[in-house]
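Box 3.1 A note on notation
Throughout this textbook, protein chains are presented in two layers. The first layer is the amino acid sequence; the second is a token string describing backbone geometry. Keep the layers aligned when reading.
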Amino acid sequence: MTNLQRSGGCLCGAVRFTCQLTSTGLQACHCVQCQRWTGGGPLFNVHVDMVDFEDDSAVGRYHASDWGERCFCTTCGSTLCWKMQDKPTRSLAVGLLDDQSGLTMTEEIFVDRRPDWLPKWTEAKQSTEAEEFAKLKDYLKGEAQ
């Protein structure tokens, strides 16, 4: 079994963390916000149970929607994660990990927004923007109860 505890950090080192991955699967998000945030490609995420930032003073937060928050390093600008506002971090950008060994692409979301020039991962689970927003609606409805 692959060790699911990892460490990582941003480009400049101002943000360092340890985390516990939930699996070795990767998720690629092709939503328009992620494309703009990453400069064209998807946001590649690993899902985590726990993230322990050594010092979160360099973690900036941007509320990109009524529910979502994008976190970044305020020193170098590195993408850190997308998360629900006021909720724990449940995913991190895979490029932050010091050790990316043993990881595989398992899920692509917002696939109807994937640019034509980017091939799909045929082995990965696929979901559209409508499917993802339906999941979000159900989640938010559950939170309101």
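The longest helix spans residues 129-144. The chain has one domain: 5-56+88-144.
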